[in-house]
Specification:
417 residues; 16 helices; globular; disordered N terminus
């Protein structure tokens, strides 16, 4: 009991001294300020309370998403709002691409309902977890709302990629202004603390990159939502164990909204009008949320989670979409083509060309992502983060090499027939 209580005190002390949570305290080193610090240091962390709230948020998201997605399907079929089939698409038939419409409203409504329930019961811990990050929560809401709206416009009428980049950069700036930026690289490339003049532009590039990585990996059923669900589960558990409950709630809420979508996307029957895509509305929204969570976990002040580097935990679930975007962009540039024009060179296209069915490719890619994450977590206590990144790159090259060999074998077999 004493050990647990000491752990609670240490956890709360870390939050107070090393995060932006001092914004909720009175300004200045007066008696009230010190009193608030002492009160928070010795406030016990009730894991049962937070576990119940996390489960409630997930349940609400699953319920609301499960109710809303069929209504979106109904409207899409009545208004003929379908994903157009072209040479890059692997699906056939009329399938709506508006599943992402459910994501942002359901996440916000579920968190708001849970917050309201807590306040009605006279419980303020839930609201305090979010109030501790007032500027970041406001800027995050504005950024998510902005990107959500641009995603809807893109799904309905189409928007040029330059306009989407401008909005993504504006969203990144909002998050940076809210305090979500890489104040440290946790030893990557030998960099720990560095100047905001370097951290701000680097953060902007990373956020735009992550948003587009999730958007571009959304090429076969269940792939983007499956990879994102793994990342959200890892982030949710990590923030929960670190005692950063606001971000744990956001992680689990987003995970909850993806679970029903995954069912409709992967197992939905086209003939029964039950299948749906997330579209740019969903992929852009999820990409931005993962950016926020990933940066906050990467730069978490404790920098340790059960002896595992939080920076490693942050980037490991996103290796597949990020490495794939880098590979595709490099390949397009080497072939003197625009890196922003779409083609069929992504990892899921390669697995399909190697002879896999779409669902087999989806399961294989998600399994690779899980394997890389597990390897990183296992070796994290023993290896420097730079060595871990090098290992990931080598493993990624090996996987792509074997896939390329398989594609060449199939082409050769086809030519000899």
């Amino acid at each position: 009991m004493l050990i647990r209580y000491a752990s609670c005190v240490n956890c709360n002390l870390q939050k107070i001294l090393f995060t932006k949570k001092h914004e909720s305290f009175p300004v200045g080193p007066g008696p009230e300020y010190l009193s608030d610090i002492i009160d928070r240091m010795f406030e016990p962390v009730d894991l049962t309370y937070w576990l119940i709230n996390c489960l409630i948020v997930i349940a609400l998201c699953i319920l609301l998403s499960g109710v809303l997605i069929p209504q979106i399907l109904l409207i899409a079929y009545r208004r003929n709002l379908f994903d157009e089939v072209d040479e890059r698409k692997i699906h056939s038939g009329s399938i709506p691409r508006l599943g992402g419409l459910a994501f942002e409203p359901v996440v916000l409504l579920s968190i708001a309902l849970t917050l309201g329930g807590n306040l009605l019961l006279g419980e303020t811990r839930f609201s305090n977890a979010f109030i501790d990050y007032p500027v970041l929560m406001v800027s995050s809401f504005c950024a998510i709302q902005m990107l959500y709206l641009i995603g809807i416009a893109d799904d309905l009428i189409g928007i040029k990629y330059r306009a989407k980049f401008v909005v993504q950069i504006l969203c990144a700036i909002l998050l940076i202004l809210g305090g979500c930026w890489f104040s440290t690289l946790a030893g990557a490339a030998g960099i720990y603390g560095w100047s905001p003049w370097l951290g701000y532009p680097f953060t902007c590039i990373v956020i735009v990159f992550l948003i587009n990585a999730i958007n571009l990996i959304d090429g076969i059923d269940g792939l983007a939502s499956g990879l994102s669900s793994i990342a959200l589960l890892v982030y949710g558990v990590s923030f929960f164990m670190l005692g950063d409950m606001a971000f744990a709630i956001i992680s689990f809420a987003t995970l909850g909204v993806l679970l029903p979508f995954f069912y409709f996307n992967v197992f939905g029957d086209v003939n029964r009008h039950k299948k749906i895509f997330m579209g740019d509305t969903g992929s852009l929204t999820i990409g931005l949320i993962l950016s926020i969570l990933g940066i906050k976990l990467y730069t978490h002040p404790s920098n340790a989670l059960l002896e595992v580097n939080t920076a490693v935990v942050a980037f490991s679930p996103l290796i597949v979409p990020c490495f794939d975007v880098v590979r595709v962009y490099i390949m397009r540039i080497r072939q003197h083509r625009s890196p922003f024009l779409p083609d069929k060179s992504h990892i899921h296209h390669k697995f399909l060309a190697a002879g896999m069915k779409p669902r087999q490719a989806m399961v294989t890619i998600i399994s690779i992502s899980l394997a890389l994450s597990v390897i990183n977590l296992v070796v994290s206590p023993y290896l420097n983060i730079n060595f871990i990144v090098v290992i990931d790159i080598l493993l990624w090259i090996i996987v792509n090499h074997f896939v390329n060999l398989r594609i060449q074998e199939r082409k050769s077999a086809g030519e000899t027939r």
